[in-house]
Amino acid sequence: MISLLTHSNPLSYLPHSSPTPSISPFFTHTKTLKPSKLKSLKINSILQYNRKPELAGDTPRVVVITSGKGGVGKTTTTANIGLSLARLGFSVVAIDADVGLRNLDLLLGLESRVNYTVVEVLNGDCRLDQALVRDKRFSNFELLCISKPRSKLPMGFGGKALVWLVDALKDREEGCPDFILIDCPAGIDAGFITAITPANEAVLVTTPDITALRDADRVIGLLECDGIRDIKMMVNRVRTDMIKGEDMMSVLDVQEMLGLALLGVIPEDSEVIRSTNRGFPLVLNKPPTLAGLAFEQAAWRLVEQDSMKAVMVEEEPKKRGFFSFFGG
Ligand SMILES: Nc1ncnc2c1ncn2[C@@H]1O[C@H](COP(=O)(O)OP(=O)(O)OP(=O)(O)O)[C@@H](O)[C@H]1O
Ligand SMILES: [Mg+2]
After folding, report:
1. 153 secondary structure, DSSP code
2. Ligand 1 centroid – CA 75 distance (Å)
3. Ligand 1 within 6 A of 75 CB?
4. Sign of the four-CA dihedral 36, 37, 39, 40
5. Cβ neighbours of residue 198 under 8 Å, at least 6 residues apart?
6. Which ligand is nearest to the CA of 277?
7. How many Å lie between the centroid of ligand 1 and the Cα of residue 51?
8. Which residues, including other chains, have CB under 8 Å from residue 192's CB and lie 6 or more apart?
């Protein structure tokens, strides 16, 4: 039996969602359920939500997953949120816009099935549907890679090419997808500009460290200059033991620094690395892990254009709680 209590050290900040339905109760139900009741909940029971999230906004929702600093979890977020959305019944096309260093195919376990890329489509060497790789687990999830690994951005390939691609995806016979997720390369050079051009919303992934935050702040400015006003953030690799020891910034600190709506908070979890190496995204794990549930909950919020709040939770001593999952 796994306890879902939420008590923690007062130095820690617990993310608290707005009162939308949630597949994971640790952020939302703590105000309504007594700890004794929460204690007895089995982790499986929290997946039994009683409705499908309502899709807000016009389709396709073109969302770029970006960061500034590299290695903070953009591809992990794209894979896990993408498959969560597909599992919720939405049609998803995930575009790996990382030219030369693509790895979304690896995380999804689809690398052996990528025969063509967008570069070949634009050269007229294949049709768009030949470059789309349909996931065998969820037929409403497709992967599209911009180019082959280790290749360079072809001459003339830029934002306009990606806008054309998004338009072509809208006009496909099987209908317009609900979500087009663009996995952005690190940095703020040509690849970044190309990846953000067709997007009308952004998910900014950051870790709670000062270097990632500085880069994230710069990226927010660039996104806004490009006309992307709907920017939400994911705080990844959060370690509550370090927050307690004041060795890591809290989620509340991060939110105050960046001033963005909070889409999700993902704990540091060795399962993420394991699932990456297996090509089996975390959200498919059974039983689910906390990081997997946090990704699912973020996907739910993305659908409904919802966000959560970081709040401080009072300590209740001598109880093992929610943060014990995080090693806290
Ligand atoms: N919550 C987490 N807990 C533990 N490891 C994680 C977590 N999130 C990501 N990682 C690991 O961090 C590494 C980088 O993740 P990922 O490739 O998703 O980052 P990225 O931002 O896409 O990198 P790049 O900028 O190179 O494209 C991977 O090895 C991944 O398994
Ligand atoms: Mg990546």
Report:
1. P
2. 7
3. yes
4. positive
5. 62, 159, 162, 163, 165, 166, 180, 182
6. 1
7. 31
8. 66, 184, 185, 186, 219, 222
In one-letter notation, the amino acid at residue 142 is: E
178 lines ligand 1 (CB under 6 A): no
53 and 300 Cβ atoms separated by less than 8 Å: yes
Question: What is the rounded average pLDDT for all residues in the chain?
Answer: 82
> Where in the sequence is the domain holding 155, given as residue range(s)?
59-314
Ligand 1 centre from 202 Cα, in Å?
18
Residue 17 in any domain: the answer is no
Q: What is the CATH number of the domain that holds 135?
A: 3.40.50.300
In a domain, 324, yes or no: no
Render pLDDT for 11-67 as a digit per residue (tens, 0 to 9).
233 334 433 333 333 333 333 344 444 444 444 444 445 678 899 989 999 999 999
Ligand 1 atom 29 nearest Cα: 273
Is the C-beta atom of 298 inside 6 A of ligand 1? no
Looking at the 3D structure of the chain, how many domains does it have?
Answer: 1
Average pLDDT over residues 259-277: 94
pLDDT at 30: 33
Structural domain includes residue 7? no
| Pocket-testing residue among 65, 66, 69, 75, ligand 1, by greatest number of atoms within 8 A of Cβ | 75
Q: Is residue 45 part of a domain?
A: no
CA distance 246 to 106: 35
Tell me the pTM.
0.83
pLDDT tens figures, 68-84? 899 999 999 999 999 99
